[in-house]
Fold each of these.
Amino acid sequence: PDIYPGNCWAFRGSQGYLVVRLSMKIYPTAFTVEHIPKTLSPTGNITSAPKNFSVYGLDDEYQEGGTLLGQYVYDQGGEPLQMFPVMV
């Protein structure tokens, strides 16, 4: 609901996977990722922010491969909320 430390979708370790199940098929045009800004970080850095990530479209949550919609890099020096257009 906000961008304060601890109110997040945290992943353990350096890799993670997330599946979002929707009620109907969509054709996305972009994705957004938000992380707290450095000014709100207790340590003054945001090394926990995502860096390289890929987005896949799946027909169902059990599908192994999926369709690659894009590979992106979150800019830790940029704005906290960043938008990434679908590349495919």
Amino acid sequence: PLSGVSLWAQPPGGQVALGDRLVLSCAVAAGTGPLSFTWHRGGSGAPLGTGPRLELRHIGDNDSGHYHCRVSNGDSAAESVPLNVTVL
């Protein structure tokens, strides 16, 4: 099973100036098989992106919120702790 899904942001802490870019990265401590990554904000159903990295260029006011990544290997899935993104 998958475990230890971690999420980190550049800039650190998810505080981004308006118009800047935000890069979110997702990693898995344990898990085998082909991993698929999806990115979500808040309770939104549609993924914002796929892959271990999510890049948001030109951050706007409506981009703030809680982001998390979900990792699946076909057999099991795990989610990261949400990261609160603040637009300054």
Amino acid sequence: MGGRVSRVFRNFNLENRVHREIGKPKPSAAPRHPSTKDFVDKMSKHSEINETIHQKDEPLAILLRTVYVNSVDPAQQDLKQKDVPALMEEERRLPKSRLQGNPSGFSDVQNVPKGKLSIVEALTVLNNYKHSPKIWTAEKIAQEYCLDLKHTKALLEFFIPFEVKIIPPKSEDKKRIKAT
């Protein structure tokens, strides 16, 4: 219902309003800057320059029509074949430690790139360093796992494995829920 009412007001006396807008004088161009006035005066005197600027150059248009560009995307197989040797060149090693079974969703890693650690190896390294830092030095860990010494020192400095401490209750006479 509201659309009909608004349409009536929108179309009311439409033709007269259109004729009034068309009959208005067109707005004049903005005044030019005084510095360009001399340039425009000089250009208007040289009408042959204006003609050559606005004239269509037929020989150039014909040459432009003969230009044809044909582009083709490179084949995807070519790109894949170039990347495969780079992956194969990366040296790999067997992991030093593995988890028995498949607890908590860790996948069993078969080989590890040199210079990197698997999650299990990283936790083992951190735990060994935590329990005996004199035996497991940064240099020994870097040599054992084929790591960069700088990265090994950063690993040992900034990563600390969690330590779970079970604190026994102070008194035995508190109520507890017994397992059934």
